[in-house]
Amino acid sequence: MHEWKQAQEELRNTQAEIAHLTRVMTMGELTASIAHEVNQPLAGIITNASTCLRMLAADPPNIEGAQETARRTIRDGNRASDVVTRLRALFSKKEPAAEPVDLNEATQEVVALTSSQLERGTVSLRLELADDLPLVSGDRVQLQQVILNLIRNASDAMSAVEDRPRQLLIRTGRDDGDGVRVTVKDTGAGVDPQAANRLFEPFYTTKSGGMGIGLSVSRSIVESHRGRLWAASNDGPGATFAFSVPRGSRSQ
Amino acid sequence: MMGVRSLVSVVDDDESVRESLPDLLKVLGFAAQAFASAEEFLASNYVQQTRCLVLDVAMPGMSGPDLQRELARRHQAIPIVFITAHRDETMRPRMLERGAAECLFKPFSDTALLEALNTALRMS
């Protein structure tokens, strides 16, 4: 966990624009910060409501004090509601920023930041970048967040593997149609066929510490780029996750 | 009546905690003071009188555990109830091991707080 956070920290430092910072958090960081943001006002709500009840139960009841704590309860409730509104904005399918993105370059940047962590997890990495890859139009940081999520999932899926090499293959290439594709293939635990259709659902997770939002956010990002994200079982052990984005994709 | 109430000092960078917790503590029969940072608490005149600290773990500047170490260095034996909005199950045993009276995850109930305070005050 700590190492991924460190990778994230480095990724942050390489991103010049401050506006991008909040959108490049790993899902682990995002989950922790959501929980933190919601728990703070909840603490206020529960403390104020407890105080309010005790003030009303006093003899004589402290009406003014109770009114003040009730007002604070409402304010903290609004604070919690603001957090939810901000989250909704984060998860909503709003139009991503449109800039020319070289997915080879974007992938290499993410790989550079995660390679030392992969090495420590004794994961061998092969990178196959296609020549003459067309640029896509989209939000570079969002697409990098997707790549980071897929690499992290692959690495997590291989952490318990002891009886075979832990291999990660990341490949870019043209899609059959007009798209550009990024493929992340691992030799990990693989995808349970029964759960395959649930993988992208919010809050579905196979990790003990996971919250199940990484893939659902990733898919939402890819779809907002008019692309698609999918998973498949390998012929051998492990799973392959891939997304493709149409070249020059973007509405407006 | 006034002088016999034990002083509980709350140190938390979150404003709604600083606003709400002292009132609850007063209703529970304690005297209460709130501080926005560990530094503010150390610079105040309340360190000597404080019978128990309700202390946020993660704060900008000096953290809760930093303050705990600083108080130990000064030989100020104030029992500490840590509070945190980061729900990390490994944190509580770690905190207890390092001498905390209790470690509560936000949001916590008034009875959990009262129990923690009673544990803390028995330690002093």
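qc> The first strand of chain A starts at residue 99 and ends at 101.
qc> done
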